[in-house]
């Protein structure tokens, strides 16, 4: 692939079928120029296909979204409960530091990198989209992909021993398929200096790529195009949060429903685990009480102090008794605020909802 093709040549073969030779030598299509594109318009184009960051949700391993969330986004179903994005700062940091990550990568490797502000799509699978961070020019004149990431210091363990988070691997393999390239690098900055930096090379794997394309094709053709909801898959916490967002707030006035088509053994297992949890909780409370009892003479000696040391032969025990202070408005005071200053209450009060799932076994 030439630099000219990367920077703007629109191909003519579109979504037509290709023979085996063409399938190996294809070139990506330019879907839209993203330079100056508003975020709303960019998101609208993203909904016309599957992007690299969508793949993990289809595969059921995304740490952020379920396959149903992805489906709802593609077909334009909006959640009934709009919540503030909890990780917006991390996303914003990642976006703003992309150029810096690319510069560090270039200095460390000596490879030239450059952006192409275009959204590409696969000529054979036009629902496969790629909005690549940067491209790499290798010494032999070929091109590769650079994906730029950031993470906090505590998350660096996911990158150690040459590992890469699985969702990022899927993202890059998707890009390699769309762009018909053989190599990509993922660069991740996890600190505030160039030594706190990971570089990982991803070689194209045609067998894994075939599986990704097969799963994406099934999702797009069987679910999105037919407007059929996919079954939930992924982490239970993400699934429960998704059900809540799209199901809306709880309504206690709704009548009791009879649930059918489910397995009794799931309910029995839930009850068994609840009993096991109750026993563990009872033991935990017993341990807590014993620990408090053992701490009494030491706390009495320390008084208002927060630190102490106890020497016993070759052993030294450092003891801390630190305070945890929290300022909050009590329930009674909150009610007064609501009555006496309703404007202030409405401006700053925030109502959240959580629901508790319980099972009680009764005689039929």
From TrEMBL:
Does Hydrolase show up as a keyword for this record?
yes
Looking up InterPro entries in the UniProt record yields: Lambda-type_endonuclease, NF-kappa-B_Signaling_Reg, PDDEXK-like_dom_sf, Restrct_endonuc-II-like, YqaJ_viral_recombinase
Question: Out of the domains of life, which is the source?
Answer: Bacteria
Cite the YqaJ viral recombinase domain residue spans from the record: 41-181
Region annotated Disordered sits at 1-23
Q: Name one Pfam family in it.
A: YqaJ
Q: Which residues form the signal peptide?
A: none
Keyword annotations of the record: Hydrolase
Picking any one GO molecular function of the record gives: hydrolase activity
Which residues lie in Polar residues bias regions? Answer: 13-23
Give the PANTHER family listed for this entry.
Answer: EXONUCLEASE, PHAGE-TYPE/RECB, C-TERMINAL DOMAIN-CONTAINING PROTEIN, EXONUCLEASE, PHAGE-TYPE_RECB, C-TERMINAL DOMAIN-CONTAINING PROTEIN-RELATED
Name of the protein in its database record? YqaJ viral recombinase family protein
